[in-house]
Write a structure and sequence with these properties.
The structure is a homodimer of 195-residue chains.
Chain A lengths: L2 H5 L17 E4 L8 E4 L5 E2 L4 E10 L2 E7 L8 E2 L2 E3 L6 H13 L3 E12 L4 E10 L10 E8 L11 H16 L5 E4 L8
Parallel strand pairs in A: 4-9, 8-11
Antiparallel strand pairs in A: 1-2, 2-3, 4-5, 4-7, 5-6, 5-10, 8-9
Chain lengths: 195, 195
Amino acid sequence: MQQGALGSRNDGHAMNFCSHCGNPVGLKVPPGDNLPRFVCDTCQAIHYVNPKVVVGCIPEWDGQILLCRRAIEPRVGLWTFPAGFMEAGEHTAEAAARETFEEAQAEVEITSLYAVFSLPHVSQIYVVFRGAMHKPEFGAGSESLEVQLFPHEKIPWDALAFPVIHETLTRYVQDRDRGQFDVHLGVVAKTPDGF
Amino acid sequence: MQQGALGSRNDGHAMNFCSHCGNPVGLKVPPGDNLPRFVCDTCQAIHYVNPKVVVGCIPEWDGQILLCRRAIEPRVGLWTFPAGFMEAGEHTAEAAARETFEEAQAEVEITSLYAVFSLPHVSQIYVVFRGAMHKPEFGAGSESLEVQLFPHEKIPWDALAFPVIHETLTRYVQDRDRGQFDVHLGVVAKTPDGF
């Protein structure tokens, strides 16, 4: 699910009213805490803003990887591997497989954890897996314009949707070339165009 | 920060009023979505409930690891490695080092990612690191009753705070014994006592 598309008016980073009692909230540092939080002036409920988890999958078939061209903003028309917000009650690997089916109509067997990248400027972490496709069946889900298998030498580097996609696939191709896949940890900083 | 202690009345899993406009919300499936969300009856804002990220660190000194005895509920009096909720704007490794300093007053250099565990029953993921202590200096932060270095053979297995701590340390000791540390991925299910 592409939450930004549906929920852009409330992305969890701003709050005017208490979701518990409906009265106004203000930013203050609660007792025993060291950061400002949204606190209800009336019922004193404290509302934390937490980073969000994006789960992704690099689907693999016969030396190629499956990418989706985005049908939704932001970055409509650009390419990504299947990725989206983890839902409450899921585990990470099943969430990545679900996103792969939703966006690329492909069934994958999650084979390994591949990367954990933090994007502090948008308070997200990406948890990315490798996924084995057992048959070359795929198609465009509602959030994709098209879905296509790419040999590594034909990855559309200049038309990737986000820096974290570029960083992940860069490492992936390097790992593939040297014949060993590591689990990658990193931070992807904000770029001049805001992503 | 131990959010449960301060924010138990609003843990992000229930919502009565719209945090954007203050009017009542109801659970419904938004157009284009496939899961029920809290949607404002008045301004139509959609409020997503997302899993939370807990970052943890196994601080290492001279063949021993540093554990904290919890001063706060739940599981007050039981042992854990330093862990807590990642804050907005952080990256995972720095958040784990921050929690280590807050709970155990120890400075660590994060050396590797160690585990990504999902706890679907509480919609949390644990991202756990190994951390090198460069000096044996530590103490009890405000959320700890005491902090102590343990040789692996003296880990207090019967007095660990949560199943995810038990699972992580079990794998850690196994890895240590065979002389190779992997990155672990897994799911820790709900236990009969609710953790």
